[in-house]
Amino acid sequence: MDKQQSAKLSDLKEIIEGYGSLLVAFSGGCDSTLLLKVAGDVLGDRAMAVTARSETYPSEEYEEAARIARQLGVTHLTIDTSELSVKDFSSNPPDRCYFCKAELFRELLELARQNGIRYVADGSSLDDASDHRPGMRAAAELGVVSPLRKARFTKEDIRKTSRALGLDTWDKPSFACLASRFPYGEEITAKKLKMAGTAENFLRRLGFRQVRVRHHGTIARIEVPEEDIRKFADNSLRQDVASKLREIGYAYVSLDLTGYRTGSLNEVLPPSQKPEEKEPVT
Questions:
Q1: Which of 69, 244, 266, 267 would you call most buried, defined as having the most Cβ atoms within 10 angstroms of its Cβ?
Q2: Is-above-0.85 flag for pTM?
Q3: Burial category of 227 from C-beta neighbours within 10 Å (exposed 0-12, middle 13-18, buried 19 and up)
Q4: Distance (Å, rounded) from C-alpha 234 to C-alpha 245?
């Protein structure tokens, strides 16, 4: 670990110690795993992880989160949520994530109160402020803290520090809830979520670690990193992918030649709905 990462880790530990007790909104991803690891080391049994299980996340992601929490030896609770029952979420407006996170954070804050825990934390980093993230507004309004952002951690810092600490999530591909696969304004349903999730699972089994299947009605738009695009020159693989995705329910299967990028469906948002400044960090 270099001096910069070491200094940020020291700051993170000091910030977390200052909270006294902490409930971590835990997805099992790279960011929240580092946060939970440090919280457990610093606070011991005053740290707790909670994972929300819902139709917007594949069951494999939940099982991975449970495994990691056990490995870290931190108390881990599960809550079941149903975002699709929230109209402001299922109708899929540009601020969809605000309604989802507001509902989730309220539940976590109540759980924290019941367990005598002072703060609820998310795993957002400095990089998250550069994209359209309505959920960060919900966190700020409800007093959810962001220790990684407060300690000035970027995504690169998180990965380097995670590797130095021996966390096997250090190179885990980023994963956003399946609702992020749908263009704004297209209603999100359980059937559509299953289609996108099943398609992505198939592609991961073929060896694509970082992949998104964007759901455009009858069209599946596949995003993979630029270095993986050339794999689709293989006729057999291409035919297998097209056949499987048609079987799942897509009439047309396309490959995005720009490649994978975070939040590609935000590219059509007008400037007024894109982030212009970083939100305050608690």
A1: 69
A2: yes
A3: exposed
A4: 17
Q: Which residues contact 107 (CB under 8 A, 6 or more apart)?
A: 52, 79, 81
What's the one-letter identity of residue 143? G
First and final C-alpha spacing in the chain: 26
Pairwise CA distance, residues 208 & 210, whole Å: 6
Does the CA dihedral 173-179-180-183 come out positive or negative? Answer: positive
The answer to whether residues 237 and 267 touch, using CB atoms and an 8 Å cutoff, is no
Across the chain, mean pLDDT equals 92
Nearest to 241 by CA among 219, 260, 214, 222: 222
What are the b/e assignments for 108-122, b being 16+ CB within 10 Å? bbebbeeeebebbbb
Distance CA 50, CA 78 (A): 6
- Number of Cβ within 10 Å of residue 196's Cβ equals 23
Sequence-distant (≥ 6) Cβ neighbours of residue 74 within 8 angstroms: 36, 39, 40, 47, 48, 49
